[in-house]
Design goal:
Blueprint: H1 4-24, H2 33-51, H3 74-87, H4 94-111, E1 118-119, E2 124-125, H5 136-155, H6 159-170
Antiparallel strand pairs: 1-2
Helix pairs in contact: 1-2, 1-4, 1-5, 2-4, 3-4
């Protein structure tokens, strides 16, 4: 599990991605209001798999469900993301649900490298790269790089992405030939 701060930071990145994709789908609305709302929904969704486990109706606020079970199920979050993306431009609730589910998927991606893993289809899967709370910087930087690439694609016509790829191809590492 990534730290609470890492989930907030990756939730912001998911919100930026969602807002850009809502605008790209033509569902941004007047003054990009739906894109902005999907950004905040992404932030909320970035922490949702954890706070959805809390029993808000009880005074003790204990977990009503075991951690990383139903609320961390990858298939449900990906289905919600795809369903809301297909509804963009047709339903008024779609940008909010798209941002929320993008944050949820980003949360699962941030939790995936740790040994506890997340339930994707039937069983729990882990990349087993590091323990909880370690290397949060890698997760946060990766999510923000993805947000910058998506935003560059949507708003700036891939100008910076193509320049970065061109720079990477010019590095000596890419010109090595295997014999």
């Amino acid at each position: 599990m990534a730290s609470k701060k890492a989930h907030h930071a990756t939730g912001w990145a998911a919100g930026v991605i969602a807002g850009a994709l809502v605008a790209h789908a033509g569902a941004a609305g007047p003054y990009f209001c739906w894109s902005i709302l999907s950004l905040f929904a992404g932030l909320l969704g970035g922490t949702a798999p954890d706070w959805l486990e809390l029993a808000w109706w009880s005074r003790s606020r204990r977990l009503w469900i075991t951690h990383r079970t139903l609320t961390h199920w990858g298939v449900a979050w990906i289905f919600l993301l795809a369903f809301s993306y297909l509804a963009l431009g047709h339903e008024p609730w779609a940008p909010l649900l798209f941002g929320f589910s993008a944050g949820g998927v980003m949360h699962l991606l941030a939790d995936w490298p740790n040994p506890l893993g997340v339930p994707w289809i039937f069983g729990r899967h882990s990349l087993k790269w590091w323990r909880s709370g370690r290397f949060d910087l890698i997760v946060v930087v990766s999510s923000w790089l993805a947000a910058m690439c998506v935003s560059d694609f949507v708003f700036l016509n891939n100008v910076h992405n193509l320049k970065a790829i061109s720079l990477m191809k010019s590095l000596p590492l890419w010109t090595w030939k295997t014999v």
